[in-house]
Amino acid sequence: MSEHDRSQLGAYALGALEPDEVREMDEHLATCPECRAELAELEEMKEFLGEVPPEAFLDGPPADGDLLLQRTLRQVRTAPEPQKKQRSRWLWIAAALVLIAGALGGGVLIGRQTVDQVAEPPAGSRQVSTTDAVTGTTMDTTVEPRAGWSWIQVHLTGLTAGAECEMLVTDKSGKTWGAGSWVVSEKAARDGSYFGGGVLVPLDQVRSVEIRTVQGKHVVTTAL
Fold first, then answer.
1. Which of 73, 76, 115, 185 is in Cβ range 3.0-4.6 Å of 50 for a Cys bridge?
2. Locate the Putative zinc-finger domain: which residues (predicted)?
3. Residue by residue, what is the 3-state secondary structure of 93-155?
4. What is the CATH number of the domain that holds 128?
5. Which one of 84, 115, 146 terminates a domain?
């Protein structure tokens, strides 16, 4: 994947790209599982940053933000094997966040959009809400169409802090796809947990979205 594509992931996650750039990124993500995984991590990072008090950003982005970006990019390029593959993903994410923070002049404040504000889903998206009668967990699910694949965003209430959850998507042929996993923070358990992931399934072929623990315990399922 090119350095240009990586630098665009953060802007894509924040909805800051132009329509033609979004289409180009959609096409790339349809063929790149690594970037889909990084996109899911960016969404998780946004939720984490949303827990930072807004007072921390009253002074705007750090004066040495450009130096921080350069240092981060240098770490990515010079990271030795075998650490490079494992470290580079998070370093690229950090670089993207620094880059966008500088461009928008708002520091990490941009990350608060995930927790306090939910972006309007694109045209053609499907939204379903359901509550599991056994676990009591409620899940609001939004499935957004992409170029040959789908992005699934969920908001769950009723989860337990520390729970290790995973999102599974089943298509109409019966095949189940993994769309990522996360650990529920105390804040997410209290206020609701947001998570997003992509799968190579067109929107009209998505049958259901399930959340379960990594230990295999069912939490909630939404049928579409």
1. 115
2. 6-36
3. HHHHHHHHHHHHCCHHHHHHHHHHCCCCCCCCCEEEEEECCCCCCEEEEEEEECCCCEEEEEE
4. 2.60.40
5. 115
The count of structural domains within the chain is 2
Last residue of a domain, one of 63, 87, 115: 115
How is residue 119 written in tokens? 């972006």
Question: Which domain does 198 fall in, by range?
Answer: 118-223
| 3-class secondary structure per residue, 1-66 | CCHHHHHHHHHHHCCCCCHHHHHHHHHHHHHCHHHHHHHHHHHHHHHHHCCCCHHHHCCCCCCCHH
Render pLDDT for 142-170 as a digit per residue (tens, 0 to 9). 999 988 889 999 999 999 999 999 999 99
What separation in angstroms does the CA of 163 have from each of 1, 39, 52, 160, 167? 33, 22, 21, 6, 13
DSSP annotation of 173:
T
- This prediction has a pTM of 0.56
Gap between the Cα atoms of 159 and 161, Å rounded: 7
